[in-house]
Write a structure and sequence with these properties.
By secondary structure, the chain is of the alpha/beta class. It has helices at residues 42-53, 72-77, 83-94, 117-131, 134-141, 173-185, 197-210, 234-243, 260-267, 285-298; strands at 3-10, 13-19, 35-41, 69-71, 99-110, 148-155, 161-170, 213-224, 247-252.
Length: 302
C-alpha cells in the first residue's frame, strides 16, 4: 500500500515522498527506500495531505528529517482527511499499481466565479465529446502502451480544488465511452473563490505524484478564462511542475480577457513540447479541446 511522508525544506515548503507497495521499504543498510516526488507549498498539505504527514509521533523513526510515515489506508480508515484526499486515495485504490501507460493526464477545469453554469457545461460537454471521438481513440492507440491514464479536477481559488473523477485507464472504445459518460454525469462541485492557476497546478501535481502508473509522460491540461489572481504566482507553480518532469499545456478562453493567451504563454505552460490553443469563446471550446487532446495524447507540438 502506498505510504506518504514529508520533510520540511525551508521557505514554507515540504518535500513529498511516496513509498509504494513495499512490505519493508528499507534498503539493505536499513535506511528508508523512497521515491522523491517534489516540493509542494505547505498550504496544499494543510488542506489535502496534512493528516498523512502530521498523523503521528508513533515512535517509528526512519530518518531524522521525516515527520511521519503512515499508510494511506490507515488515514482513510480513521477518516482524518478531507474530501479532496478522500477522492484522491479512492482513485488510487481502484487502480492497479504500476500499470504502464503512455500518458498520465490531469484535466483541470475552471470553475471560478467568472464561469457561469452555461459556460461550465460547455467545458464539461466539450471534454466528454472529445473522448467519444474516434480520432482521440486513434491517438491513444498510437502509443507504445496503447493506453492513457486520465483524471479530472475542478479548481477555483488557492484552497479550492477537488478531484471530481478518479483515475481511469482509457485504452479502447469501451473505456473511452465510459469515461465520456462519467464526465457528462459529473456535477459542478465548486463555485467562486477567485482564480488560482497556481493552486490548480499544485493540486494537479499532487494527483500525478499519487497516480499508481508508470507513465511515459505526465501532463496537466489547464483550461480557464482568467489570469491568476489568488495564491502564489502561476509561474512559480509552473516551474515546480517542470522540475518534476511534468508538462503543462493550456487552453485559454479569451471571452473576458482578450490577451489571456499571452499570459498563459509567459506564465502557465511549460515543459518539453508545451503548447496552448486559445479560443475566442466558450462556444468554440469543444472544437479546441478535441484538437488539443489529440495533440496532447499523441505527444505532438503545434
Amino acid at each position: 500500500m502506498p505510504r506518504v511522508l514529508a520533510r520540511h525544506t525551508g521557505e514554507g515548503r515540504l518535500r513529498l515522498f511516496r513509498v509504494g507497495g513495499l512490505p519493508h521499504p528499507t534498503r539493505p543498510d536499513g535506511r528508508l527506500r523512497y521515491r522523491q516526488s517534489g516540493n509542494f507549498p505547505v498550504e496544499i498539505f494543510k488542506r489535502v495531505a496534512r493528516p498523512a504527514i502530521y498523523c503521528a509521533r508513533a515512535g517509528r523513526t526512519v530518518a531524522p528529517a521525516i515527520r511521519c510515515v503512515m499508510p494511506l489506508r490507515v488515514v482513510r480508515r480513521r477518516e482524518l482527511m478531507g474530501g479532496a484526499l478522500a477522492s484522491l486515495t479512492a482513485g488510487i485504490v481502484r487502480a492497479r499499481a504500476d500499470t504502464a501507460v503512455d500518458l498520465a493526464l490531469v484535466l483541470a477545469v475552471d470553475a471560478s466565479g467568472s464561469v457561469d453554469d452555461r459556460r461550465f457545461a460547455l467545458q464539461q460537454h466539450g471534454y466528454a465529446d472529445a473522448f467519444r471521438s474516434p480520432t482521440v481513440l486513434k491517438a491513444i492507440r498510437s502509443g507504445a502502451a496503447q493506453a492513457i491514464a486520465v483524471t479530472m479536477m475542478q479548481w477555483t481559488g488557492p484552497a479550492m480544488q477537488t478531484q471530481v473523477i478518479g483515475w481511469n485507464v482509457v485504452g479502447d472504445e469501451a473505456s473511452a465511452q465510459k469515461f465520456a459518460a462519467v464526465i457528462d454525469a459529473t456535477p459542478r462541485q465548486l463555485h467562486g473563490g477567485g482564480t488560482s492557476i497556481s493552486g490548480a497546478v499544485d493540486f494537479a501535481r499532487l494527483l500525478l505524484v499519487q497516480a499508481p502508473y508508470t507513465a511515459g509522460r505526465r501532463v496537466i491540461d489547464v483550461s480557464g478564462d482568467g489570469a491568476n489572481n489568488r495564491g502564489r504566482p502561476a509561474e512559480r507553480a509552473r516551474d515546480d511542475a517542470v522540475r518534476d518532469n511534468i508538462g503543462i499545456n493550456g487552453l485559454p478562453i479569451l471571452a473576458l480577457e482578450p490577451y489571456l493567451d499571452r499570459y498563459y504563454y509567459d506564465n502557465v505552460i511549460g515543459g518539453p513540447g508545451a503548447f496552448m490553443i486559445p479560443v475566442e469563446s466558450y462556444e468554440a471550446f469543444a472544437e479546441a479541446i478535441l484538437k488539443k487532446l489529440i495533440m496532447e495524447i499523441a505527444g505532438l507540438a503545434p
